[in-house]
Amino acid sequence: MTTELSILVGTVTGALAAYITAKVTTNTQLNIARGNADKDITLQRDRLKHDHFTNELSVERAKLDALHRILSRIELENSQTMSYIQSVSNLGVEDFRSRYLENCERLHEAMAIADIHYPEMSEKVCEIYGQSNIFWGNQENLLRTDIKANEFGWQTLLSKVLEASQAISTRARHLKFEIAHRAKELSGNIAIP
C-alpha cells in the first residue's frame, strides 16, 4: 500500500505542479498580451492624433493659401493699373459689370474663409469689400465721363478711384502679412503636438 500511496502522492504532486505551472504561464502570457494590447492602443491613438493634426494643418494651410491668392487678385483688380487698363481699353459696360461681379464673388469667398476660419481678419476683409464697391462705382462713372467735356468731374472721379485703390492695397497687404505670419506659426507646429 505504501507504494500505491507513493504513486498517488507523486501523481497528485505532479498534476498540481503542472496545474500551477500552467496557471502561472497563462497569467504571464495574459499580462504580456495586455501590455502589448495597451501599447498597440496607445500607438494607434497617437497615430490617429498625428493624422488628425496633419489633416488640420493641411486644411489650414490650404485656407491661408486661398485667402492670400484671393487678396492678391482683389488687390490687382482694384489697382491703379487696372483702372488705367479699363480706361484705355474701351471696356463695355456689360463686360465691366461682369468683372465687378467676379470681383464680388472672390470677395465673398474671402469673407467666408475669414468668417469661418479667421474671424480676427473678417473686419478687414469687409473693409476691403466696402472700398472695392467704392472703387468699382467710381471707376464705372469715370469710364462714362468724357474728360474733354468734364475734366473736373473726371479728375474728381479718378481721385476717388485712386483713394479706394490705395485703401484696398493697404488693407490687403496687412492681411497678407497676417497670413504669412500665421503660416510661419504653422511651420513651427509641424512636430507632433
Notes on the protein architecture:
It is built from 5 helices and no strands. With 193 residues, it is mainly alpha-helical. The chain has a domain at 61-188: Four Helix Bundle (Hemerythrin (Met), subunit A), CATH 1.20.120.
For the structure shown, list the relevant keywords.
193 residues, mainly alpha, Four Helix Bundle (Hemerythrin (Met), subunit A), 0% strand
Write the topology of this structure.
Blueprint: H1 2-77, H2 80-88, H3 93-117, H4 119-144, H5 151-188
- The best one-word shape is rod-shaped
Helix and strand sequence: HHHHH
Question: Can you tell me the CATH class of one domain?
Answer: Mainly Alpha
User: How much of the residues is beta strand, in percent?
Assistant: under 5%
Describe the main β-sheet briefly: none
CA gyration radius, whole angstroms: 37 Å
What's the CATH architecture of one domain? Up-down Bundle
CATH topology of one domain: Four Helix Bundle (Hemerythrin (Met), subunit A)
Mean pLDDT: 88
Distance between the termini: 75 Å
- Strand tally, please? 0
Helical/strand content category: mainly alpha
Q: Would you identify the regions where 5 or more consecutive residues have pLDDT less than 50? A: none
Helical content (DSSP H or I, runs of 4+): over 70%
Report the total helices.
5
Summarize the structure.
The chain is mainly alpha-helical and 193 residues long. The chain has five helices and no strands.
